[in-house]
Amino acid sequence: MLAANDDVTRQVLELEANARQLGFRLAVQCLTCKRWLTAPRSVAAHRGPVCRGGHDV
Questions:
Q1: Do residues 50 and 35 make contact, with C-beta atoms less than 8 angstroms apart?
Q2: Which of 5, 11, 27, 43 is the most buried (most CB within 10 A)?
Q3: Residue 56 has pLDDT above 60, yes or no
Q4: What per-residue confidence (pLDDT) applies to 48?
Q5: How far apart are CA 23 and CA 35, in angstroms?
Q6: Residue 39 lies in a domain
Q7: 8 is in which domain, residue-wise?
Q8: Alpha-carbon distances of 32 from 1, 3, 46, 56, rounded to whole Å
Q9: Per residue in 3-52, pLDDT tens?
Q10: What's the rounded Cα separation, in Å, for the pair 33 and 51?
C-alpha cells in the first residue's frame, strides 16, 4: 500500500530532476524552524527531519 505522501514525494523528485537538468536546485523553508530544506523527503513534507520528530511524514 502506498502512503498518501508517496505520490507527492515522486512529484518532488521529478521536479527536482528537471530543475537540476536546467542548473537549478529546489529548496523550501521548513514550516516550523524556517531553515532551508533540499532533501526530497523534507521538501515534500515542508519540514526537516528534526521538526518532523524523526518520523517520515
A1: no
A2: 43
A3: no
A4: 94
A5: 22
A6: yes
A7: 4-45
A8: 29, 23, 9, 16
A9: 657 888 888 788 889 999 999 988 899 999 999 998 878 888 899 999 99
A10: 7
- What does the alpha-carbon distance between residue 42 and residue 14 come to, in Å, rounded to a whole number? 15
> Residue 1: what pLDDT?
39
In angstroms, rounded to a whole number, what is the distance separating the alpha carbons of residues 54 and 17?
25
Asked if residue 21 belongs to a domain, the reply is yes
Within 10 A of 5 (CB to CB), how many other CB atoms are there? 14
Q: Is 42 helix (H, G, I), strand (E, B) or coil?
A: helix
Asked if residues 31 and 47 have their Cβ atoms less than 8 Å apart, the reply is: yes
- Extract the C-alpha cell encoding 51: 521538526
Establish if 15 belongs to a structural domain: yes
